[in-house]
Design a protein that fits this description.
The chain has one domain: Orthogonal Bundle (TorD-like). The radius of gyration is 17 Å and the shape is globular. The chain has helices at residues 2-8, 15-25, 43-56, 72-91, 95-112, 117-127, 131-150. 49% of the residues lie in helices and 0% in strands. α4 (72-91) packs antiparallel against α5.
């Protein structure tokens, strides 16, 4: 949870740390912590799919400025919840719920972290001298690469790069070319669902 603290801030955060987090992450930050800021895909589809994952497990984002569904802090909290639910199901010897939780976890990693989290961590390290941020970037990338090995997911260098350049001024797929891409709930379809058994209907990173 160190990563979440670095990306969200908190009461123990110093004035200098708060200023650095604002410079890095708040619009038009040097290193936006949002999936939709990095991916050349329909931003509404990204947020709608994430919202479906969250609803399937009863997860609600915290009500603060970092509560966007695709914020890395929100994503980290959701993934932690899913692993806790998997562990509890295993402890209770309920194999089916455990399998569902694990499958959702792996699908989420593949579909919503694999093609942007390594570039994000690389950019973060290049954009700051803050020790907490540097530690968070290293922990986050290590967690991703370790999970990729364990669950047979391709590492970023095995994928076709799909990360949007940070100076990109918009694509035809963005809901709001002049500001925060798809930062509002209107972009997310209300009937988004989570396909726990297949990802065939999901857009690929190269699309």
């Amino acid at each position: 949870m160190k990563c979440v603290g670095a990306f969200r801030g908190g009461a123990a955060e110093s004035v200098q740390e708060r200023a650095e987090r604002t410079r890095l992450f708040e619009v038009p930050g040097a290193c936006p912590p949002y999936e939709a800021a990095w991916i050349r895909r329909d931003k509404g589809a990204i947020l709608g799919d994430i919202a479906g994952f969250y609803r399937a497990f009863g997860f609600e984002a915290v009500a603060d400025g970092s509560s966007r569904h695709d914020h890395i802090g929100t994503i980290a909290e959701y993934l932690a919840l899913v692993r806790v639910m998997e562990a509890k199901a295993l402890a209770d010897r309920r194999d089916e719920p455990a399998d569902i939780a694990l499958e959702a976890y792996v699908n989420f990693l593949r579909d919503h972290l694999g093609d942007w989290i390594v570039p994000f961590c690389t950019r973060l390290r290049a954009s700051t001298h803050s020790k907490p941020m540097l530690v968070a970037a290293d922990l986050l990338e290590h967690a991703w690469r370790s999970s990729a090995v364990v669950h047979g997911l391709p590492a970023f260098d095995q994928l076709e790069a799909a990360a949007t350049p940070l100076d990109d001024q918009g694509t035809p797929y963005e809901c709001d070319l002049g500001g925060d891409p798809c930062g509002s709930e209107e972009c997310a379809p209300a009937d988004a669902t989570v396909p726990l058994t297949t990802s065939a209907s999901r857009p690929s990173p190269s699309q």
